[in-house]
Structure formats: C-alpha cells, structure tokens
Design a protein that fits this description.
By secondary structure, this protein is mainly β. The chain has a single domain (31-139), classed as Outer Surface Protein A, domain 3 (Alpha-Beta Complex). It has one helix at residues 12-22, and strands at 31-37, 43-50, 53-61, 67-74, 77-85, 91-98, 101-109, 115-122, 125-132, 138-139.
Length: 141
C-alpha cells in the first residue's frame, strides 16, 4: 500500500522504498524480437532473444518465402521439438533437442514421403537407427 502525505505526494522515505523495490526488476529478462531479411525483402529468420540468447519458437524461411524450419530454444540452446519442411510444405524432418543435443528421436523423410531414417537418441548419442531406401525397403550399412 502506498501512503501519501497531506498534499497527495509520496513521502520521501516511501519514494526511496518504491525505487529500491523497482530497480532490481529493471533490466531482468529483456526480450527482443528479431527478424532478419533476405536481399529480396522476404523474411529469413524470426524469433525472440531474452538477455541476448535465443528463447522460445524460432522460424527459418527459404529465400522464396516458404517456411523451412522451426525450433524451440531455451537459454540460447536448442531445447524442444524441431521441424523442417521441403519448399512444397511437406515435412522433411522432425526431432527433439535437449540443451543443444539430439534427444529422444530424429526422423528424416524423403521427398517421396517415405522415411529415410529414424534414429533414437539419448543425450546426443544414437542408441538405435533404422534406414529405408527410396522404395521403403529397410536396409543397413
């Protein structure tokens, strides 16, 4: 509760207390929306920075304007789901990151819509992998 003096102005001690309570909040979590452009004027990337680090959803675009990929960032590191698309809008790849390392799975899809590979990850290391040729036949190296 703010207490005012007789003339409705903050008392000097209350001004100092209010200032001391607010100062620590200034400058914390500064968010900046950033958007970059290709020379042709179309969007290249867009996303937020908090305190100079990527945060939240980021988007990348092909020079022609179609969405190329999206990814989630936390404290400047890839952390969450990532998607990539071909120019025609078809899903190209999908995977999860945990603090800049692949985690859980990553799959890559051929332009014909068939899976190319599916990998399971744990802390950035492949723990299993399955591959398919362009006809959908499973193979190994």
């Amino acid at each position: 509760m703010i207490i005012f003096g007789k003339n409705k102005k903050l008392k000097p001690m209350k001004k100092l207390l209010l200032l001391l309570l607010c100062v620590p909040l200034i400058g914390i979590g500064q968010t900046e929306y950033k958007k970059t452009y290709y020379e042709n004027g179309k969007t290249e990337t867009e996303g937020n920075y908090i305190d100079g680090r990527k945060e939240g959803l980021w988007k990348w675009y092909y020079e022609s304007g179609e969405l190329e990929s999206t990814g989630i960032y936390k404290n400047g590191q890839s952390h969450g789901i990532f998607h990539g698309w071909y120019k025609n809008g078809q899903l190209r790849c999908e995977g999860y990151f945990k603090y800049d390392k692949l985690d859980n799975y990553f799959k890559y899809i051929q332009e014909n819509g068939r899976l190319s590979f599916f990998r399971k990850y744990k802390d950035g290391k492949i723990i299993s992998e399955t591959r398919w040729d362009k006809n959908g036949k499973e193979y190994s190296d």
